[in-house]
Structure formats: C-alpha cells, structure tokens
Amino acid sequence: MSEVKTKTAPRREIQFSDLGSILNDVDRLEAAEKAGSLVQNGNWSLGQITHHVADLIEQSLDGFRFKAPAPIRILFTTLRPILFKRPIPAGITLRGQSRVLIPEPDISSEQGLSELRAQIKRLQDGAQMTHPSPIFGRLDQEQWMGLHLRHAALHLSFLDPGEA
Description:
By secondary structure, this protein is mostly helical. The protein has five helices and two strands, in the order αβααααβ. The chain has one domain. The protein has helices at about 20-35, 45-60, 70-85, 110-125, 140-155, and strands spanning about 40, 160. The chain has a two-stranded antiparallel sheet.
C-alpha cells in the first residue's frame, strides 16, 4: 500500500465513551478482517494501530521512553484545556524521540489486538496511570482516560469494518 495522506483519507466518525466501546469496535474490526471486508483507509494496519494504542496506554501506566523538548511541553501544557475538549486531528507527524511510538510494519493483527486487550484489562482491573505525559505533563486518571479514548478513536477511524 502506498503512503496515504492521512489528513484527507476517508475516516469513520467515531467516539468512544469508555474502554468497553473500544473493545466492541476492535471486535468488529477483527471480525471484518477475518471476513475479508476490512477497509484500511490510512497507512497502518489493524495490528499496527492496536499495537500503537496499546503502547501509549502501557507507557501511561509504566513510564514513557521519551520526553518532548521543553518548548513543546510548555506549549501543549498551556493549550491542554483547549486541546482536551476536541478530537485529536489526523495527520500529526511524530518527530524526534517520539518516533519510538511508530509501530513496525510487520505487527500482526493478533499481536496488536492481544496487546490492546491486555492493556485495557489492566485499566479495567484498576491500574492507575501515574506517569506524566511526555507532551502534556502530569495528568489525572480522568484526563488520561479521555486522551486514550480520543487517541483510539483517531486511529481506529481509519479502519472500516465494511459489511462484516
């Protein structure tokens, strides 16, 4: 698949209200992939997307492998009240140390889905997201949850289950 311009790629309009709604959506996407009806409108596969979303959740629980430069952290911490009220826009390019969040191309759907389900289970079992965001700084559990729900919606919106 050639590189897609994600700002203009067709996407589903989705919002998640809780972790269960993410799980329901990935179940539908997994079924669609098995049925051969899954449409990938972005650059990442189901495996890459679910791995990436799981990775961010895991790092919010266990600690991040990178930190944004100070000017970026100051800017985004200042803008946090505005940014946290909106969906995350498509087409953000990860630069510098944040490139560690870009998934490898060979991540299988089974691997990514397993990782995402495991991280969501940790949250459902009461694990606390105590590590500061490398961009937004300290977040409470509610802010982290909102960020993860919007982040999952952004990435999963590039996958369409078609007629599964």
